[in-house]
Amino acid sequence: MSILVFGSTGQVATELRRQAPEATFLSRADADLSDPDACAAAIAAHKPDVVINAAAYTAVDRAEEEEALATTVNGDAPAAMARACADLGVPFLHVSTDYVFDGTGTDPWQVGDPVAPLGAYGRSKLVGEEGVRAAGGAHAILRTSWVFSAHGNNFVKTMLRLSETRDALNVVEDQIGGPTPAADIAATLLAMSAKMRAGQGGGTYHYGGAPATSWAGFAREIFTRAGRDVTVTGIPTKDYPTPAARPLNSQMDGSTLRTDFGIDPPDWRAGLDAVLRDLTV
Ligand SMILES: NC(=O)C1=CN([C@@H]2O[C@H](COP(=O)(O)OP(=O)(O)OC[C@H]3O[C@@H](n4cnc5c(N)ncnc54)[C@H](OP(=O)(O)O)[C@@H]3O)[C@@H](O)[C@H]2O)C=CC1
Ligand SMILES: Cc1cn([C@H]2C[C@H](O)[C@@H](COP(=O)(O)OP(=O)(O)O[C@H]3O[C@@H](C)C(=O)[C@@H](O)[C@H]3O)O2)c(=O)[nH]c1=O
Q: Is Oxidoreductase there in the keyword field (predicted)?
């Protein structure tokens, strides 16, 4: 099975490269998502069996100032990719986010729950979801959350960096979600690719790490497991103002992924240990 991946340097793309080194990875220099037609042309030229889009505009706060660019990259480009895949008759796998939800309530979000993004990043990702569905081809949209790995920018690396100079941190305690190891997302995308190539599954799925925690709870676990002596004080969101609002409830129900693909939510604590080991070698 020949797999074409958009993205090369990001968290998920890096883990895909580790697990499927034989796949073809397109960097920004190979296919810039700010040029959706070029992305479609790349698919037509490569004629792969499956396409995975692991590239995205992920700067949540900066997106508030650059919504047009974020929408082209996260919305128009995946839509163009999905149309090119539909033309070729191959499945398209796309990664989306918990930030399409508004974070109300306390139950985990079901796949069919109403979406209402709070910020520009979430809106841009929603445009992508809608474009992928509208393309009409075989597709899977995998909504995940709070991604971390040893590569790129993420909360784990931010916390470890801050711990070099601080012995106490204030971290929001009223945003609840599921940290998700990029390595598990990559493995899930590859398993889904094989099944979708065989005509199984398709649609929108949720894949967030378990058990649910807060950012403060996640931070405490990072410092405990990394052996860093940092005191984490849990604070309400209103005491940590950011340009983009984040959902308070980001928990996602993964039952349809289990039904269609036999995949359960990953335990992020095991993934955290693996990332911490990765960072020390
Ligand atoms: N990070 C998270 O916490 C979460 C991420 N997601 C989703 O998961 C997916 C993967 O995210 P993640 O691995 O964390 O992403 P990263 O932020 O680690 O990497 C983003 C990747 O996208 C590439 N990229 C950005 N803009 C462009 C562009 N204009 N043209 C080509 N490539 C571009 C980057 O390339 P370059 O190195 O050249 O900038 C980089 O390879 C995305 O769809 C994201 O929305 C969902 C939930 C949570
Ligand atoms: C650094 C820091 C952050 N925070 C808060 C701010 C925010 O509410 C929360 C997480 O901050 P970050 O900016 O690291 O995370 P953020 O960029 O919002 O992460 C999101 O990225 C996008 C791409 C997604 O799709 C989401 O699933 C989610 O992972 O932690 C603190 O409370 N204290 C701190 O010292």
A: yes
